Amino acid sequence: MSRDHVQSAERPADSAEAPFLELLARGASADAYEQPVLLARAEGRPPERIAALEQAKLLALRVRSEIEGRRRREAELSALFETAHDLAGLRDLDAVLQAIVQRARSLLGTDVAYLSLHDEARGDTYMRVTEGSVAARFQQLRLGMGEGLGGLVAQTARPYVTDDYFKDERFQHTRTIDSGVRDEGLVAILGVPLMIGSQVIGVLFAADRRARVFEREQIALLGSFAALAAAAIDTANWLTETRSALDRLGRANEIIRDRSGVIERASDVHDRLAELVLRGGGVHDVAAAVSEVLDGTVVFVESGDAPTAAVETSRTEGHAVRHRDDWVAAVAAGGELLGALVLRGHPGLDPVDQRTLERAAMVTSLLLLARRSAAEAEQRVRGELLDDLLDARDRDPRLLGERAARLHADLDGPHVVLAARLDAPAADADQEAAARRRLWSAASHLATTRHGLAAARDGGTVLLLPLAPGDTATNLARRTARHLGTAVHAGVTVGASAPLEQLAARPDAVAAAYAEGQRCLDALRLLGRAGDGAAAEDFGFLGLLLAGDRDISGFVERTIGRVVAYDERRGTDLLRTLDAYFACGMSPARTKDDLHVHVNTVAQRLERVGRLLGDDWQSPARALEIQLALRLHHLSSAAPH
């Protein structure tokens, strides 16, 4: 070996590898590696030198490719690691998915990257995240199963790549999808499925606006990002489900605590109601106990004082019902309504508390039935006393008075005899008997509470009730008709007698008054007023026909008594003027001729009559009654004394 050759081999600058090492060191492009070979040829270097340079170039390019691959894999691994780190600290799913799409676009060097998710309700996929997109229509695309490249990926659960989207016939083209892709200007598209287990939940895409061939490594890299995206979505779903489950558990725990308190209250009221029943408590004791448990005001009301529609609904459905801001629970036994428990000012009621109110209503009905059973004996005694007053005319008045006193009935005070009867006939004999028993039961209860008497008679019921000061037989009859009708849920007609006093000394007067009440009852039915109540005094002069004692003087007094009294005090001739006025056909001109007075005198007298009798005294009905009263007055005045 020559000395020059040895020196040349020892100088690195003269070695074939030296220029390429320099290129590798500064990271030159692949085209730059041709320069040393071209320069050697231009300088006329020996073929051996050129061959050595060619060999060194190939080796350098391989080293460069290996370095680039390592760098690329390092970047990919770093991006995957960062994505996994984001996933581990997942707080915002949208932010994680956005980062995945951004990194996929950056590493694959594509113009656009985007991610679509499956919509189970609509059976298609929709855009969830886009990066690099500029077309609004593209960002709002929805792809059906099998439609477009993404639809094919979702349907087959395999990656698909197309170098030229519009020339690819492997998937179904639609106008909507193609229009969106055209707006975005995409040509080459790579799509990989997002999988949770064996289920496809979406597709991750990378796309370019020019023709491009995606390498196997790039497809695998996008698949790795898709796996991380699917894991992020699955984790988010689990977190959402976990939070939802925790919320449900929290609500269930609150409900359990609430129900526990309600059950304790229900147990408390059960114990209290049981104690009340055992020690013979009353209805108001039950209301007080339930008021304390429900933290409200509970009262018992009679059937006639409760809201009718709410009570009827409660009785029919068997549950407490809301009425405005109150709750109403019907108290009923069989087909009879006994009253209602009302919870005042408590619109929001827990279902368990509602059942507590219903249970209290049931206990109330049991207490009322027990009290009624105890009172039935007293009612029978009351009925027997009334039967004796009606039938046994020879009874000792002293004994009748003593029997009445034991029943807390005062026969010396004013009383009214009332005849009550159901209006509608029953479908058969059994129903008729049951209806009559309900009527008698309701009448007996009413008589007991009002310190009166009641008995079943002539297919109906007869009552003897005291008359309060200022009250009238008519008002009492009407109230009784309403009360009994509400209690038995059917129309009840009531006819009343005129007021009576000193009944123990006049037992025969009770029978006559009962007959009078029956005639009033029949008259109401004939006049189409079934279900109403009235007394003889309500029928005007027809009351004379209905009244048992034909109270003529009372009728005259009620009709023209004020005119009679005026004439007696003043010495005037109003009665004679009235007679002449009616005899002359209610003509003032003819009346003044009959009386031989001036017509102004007639007018003045008639004006005075109007002030005494009322402005309607000349109406046909009043005029008829006044004429009858005048005739009866003259007849009674002409009778010998």
Main features:
six-stranded antiparallel β-sheet, 59% helix, 641 residues
General description of the model:
- This protein is of the alpha+beta class and 641 residues long.
- It is built from 22 helices and 15 strands.
- Strands 3-2-1-6-5-4 form a six-stranded antiparallel β-sheet.
- A hairpin with a 2-residue loop joins strand 8 and strand 9.
- Helix 4 packs parallel to helix 9 and helix 19 packs across helix 20.
- The protein is elongated, with a radius of gyration of 55 Å.
Short description:
The chain is of the alpha+beta class and 641 residues long. The chain has helices at 3-10, 18-26, 35-42, 47-88, 93-108, 136-139, 148-156, 175-184, 216-278, 283-294, 308-317, 351-391, 397-406, 429-449, 473-488, 507-526, 542-546, 552-570, 574-583, 588-595, 599-613, 620-638, and strands spanning 112-119, 124-131, 142-144, 160-162, 188-196, 199-208, 297-301, 321-323, 326-333, 336-344, 415-422, 453-457, 460-466, 492-496, 533-535.
What's the topology here?
Layout: H1 3-10, H2 18-26, H3 35-42, H4 47-88, H5 93-108, E1 112-119, E2 124-131, H6 136-139, E3 142-144, H7 148-156, E4 160-162, H8 175-184, E5 188-196, E6 199-208, H9 216-278, H10 283-294, E7 297-301, H11 308-317, E8 321-323, E9 326-333, E10 336-344, H12 351-391, H13 397-406, E11 415-422, H14 429-449, E12 453-457, E13 460-466, H15 473-488, E14 492-496, H16 507-526, E15 533-535, H17 542-546, H18 552-570, H19 574-583, H20 588-595, H21 599-613, H22 620-638
